[in-house]
Amino acid sequence: MDRKWTFGLVRSLVAAGGRFSTALGINVEGGEPEIDRWFMAATLFGARISTAIAEHTFHVLDEAGVTPATARSFPWDDLVTLLDRGGYARYDFKTATRLHALCDVLCDRYGGRVCAIPDHAHTPGELERALDDLPGWGPVTVGMFLRELRTVWPLAAPALDPRAAACGVHLGLISESAHDPLARVRSLSEPAGVDVRDLEGALVRTSLAHRGGVENCPGGRDCIVIARLVAQSPTQMRTGAR
């Protein structure tokens, strides 16, 4: 791809949707309460459920005052009701139980503070293992949570999300032989004037937008998702690097 097209594509991808936390109205640079909110959102995104339902359910819990530290103070039945209201019915019982368990672990191990978790780690790997050890959390949830905390938590240094990496290759932004795809994403985001976290999030969103998987799409400039972006913002796509 030529330089002008590449940076126009990067900006269009981010304009269509970048960080998941930002889309939820969460500013992870805003201190502990905001990181607590992102922790709750990441917990909900961890299930095999649509982004829209996870987002709606987060807002329902957020408005009700459910936080990682207060979840235990809400009766299990009340949490189920809130989850159902958000559309999380398929996982309501399991998630209500998990929220109580998360609250217990946070209080027992970290004094009820999500932001105390990094204090018990010395390396990015230790931080990832501590998060992975939380009830209901796994590599996908850990990676999602930490990628949006890059530059906020010094130990937040996860590898590029595999979905973002695969989508980058699909679009011709990342070489299949790239040894460090995250470095490539950084090299694209900086001259394009976008946050690397937004570009990673945008690539994940683009991957998810391929309902049948990227392997069933021509890719590159012929990508069906990119074709829709071009139709929506042709000027942006033609704009060169800043």
Describe this structure in words.
It is a single chain. With 242 residues, this protein is mainly alpha-helical. The chain folds into 2 domains: 3-19 and 159-238, no CATH class; 21-147, Hypothetical protein, domain 2 (Endonuclease III, domain 1, Orthogonal Bundle), CATH 1.10.340.30. It is built from 13 helices and no strands. The chain has helices spanning 3-16, 20-23, 32-45, 51-64, 76-86, 92-110, 124-132, 139-147, 162-171, 181-192, 196-209, 224-232, 234-238. The two termini are 17 Å apart.
What is the total number of structural domains? Answer: 2
For the sheet with most strands, the description reads: none
CATH architecture of the largest domain: Orthogonal Bundle
Approximate shape? globular
CATH topology of the largest domain: Endonuclease III, domain 1
Strand composition percent: under 5%
**DSSP summary, beta strand count:** 0
Q: What is the H-and-E element order?
A: HHHHHHHHHHHHH
Number of helix segments? Answer: 13
- Low-confidence runs: 234-242
Rg over C-alpha atoms, rounded to the nearest angstrom? 19 Å
Walk me through the topology.
Blueprint: H1 3-16, H2 20-23, H3 32-45, H4 51-64, H5 76-86, H6 92-110, H7 124-132, H8 139-147, H9 162-171, H10 181-192, H11 196-209, H12 224-232, H13 234-238
Helix pairs in contact: 1-10, 1-11, 3-4, 3-8, 4-5, 5-6, 9-11
Features:
single chain, mainly alpha, 242 residues
Task: Please provide a brief summary of the model.
With 242 residues, this protein is mainly alpha-helical. Helices cover 60% and strands 0% of the residues.
